[in-house]
Amino acid sequence: MSVHDFTMTAIDGTERSLKDYAGKVLLVVNTASACGLTPQYEGLEKLHETHADLVVLGFPCNQFGAQEPGTEKEIALFCETRFAVTFPMFSKIEVNGEGTHPLYAYLKAETPGAEKGQEIGWNFAKFLVGRDGKPIARYSPRTAPADLEADITAALAR
Fold it and tell me: What is this structure's pTM?
């Protein structure tokens, strides 16, 4: 199994197979529009633009402080107008609890390191996924996108 085995609903309502990203390094992030960490969209977009073989995938989530209350249309407009986001955004999902989306259940269970299997702590948790669709690392919501540069470069070199 890998991330490529999942099909997700894009923010425009269309179904998108994550197989479309096979051969790319992915940075999977649960996002929110009304969070103190929301300015990370800028850094995420910069990473997405800087590395041709890196794709940031944004998954809005309203589970933390109800900081993503809008509709998909409102979220998409916010991302485009406030942060000029061009990376793929998807429909809102749950990342913890009984309603955890299977993608996030997989990411949490398969990520190596101390946080393996643990619940997501807040908005903007990040998962680095290799070209083969296998999770490489998990990062705290407070980890700035720029601080991932060395790990992303290493993953791209594989």
Answer: 0.96
